[in-house]
Design brief:
Blueprint (H helix, E strand, L loop, with lengths): L6 E3 L6 E3 L3 E6 L5 E4 L7 E6 L2 H9 L2 H6 L5 H11 L1
Helix pairs in contact: 1-3
C-alpha cells in the first residue's frame, strides 16, 4: 500500500505541491505573523513556495491575507522577504 503524500497549495502561484516542498507562514494565537520552519507550530497557516517571487505574489494578490484572515502590515511582509531570501 502506498503512503499518501500530503499536498498543499501555494498562495502565491496557486500550484499544488508536496507539503515538505513548501514553507508555512503562520499567524500565531497572539496575532504574530512568522515563518514556521517546523510546520508544527500552533496557529493558522498558509503555504508558499521556497521562492521570494511567490511571497511577493502572495502579498500582492492578497492570498496570504485571505488565508491568514488578517491584514499584513508592510514591516511584517518586509521581514518575511528577508527571512526567505
Amino acid at each position: 500500500m502506498q503512503k499518501k503524500i500530503p499536498m498543499r497549495k501555494c498562495v502565491g502561484c496557486n500550484e499544488m505541491k508536496e507539503k515538505k516542498e513548501l514553507i508555512r507562514v503562520l499567524k500565531t494565537p497572539e496575532d504574530e505573523i512568522i515563518l514556521d520552519t517546523t510546520g508544527r507550530a500552533n496557529g493558522r497557516g498558509a503555504y508558499i513556495c521556497n521562492n521570494p517571487e511567490c511571497l511577493k505574489k502572495a502579498i500582492k494578490n492578497r492570498g496570504l491575507e485571505r488565508s491568514l484572515k488578517s491584514h499584513i502590515p508592510a514591516e511584517v511582509s518586509d521581514r518575511l522577504q528577508k527571512e526567505l531570501s
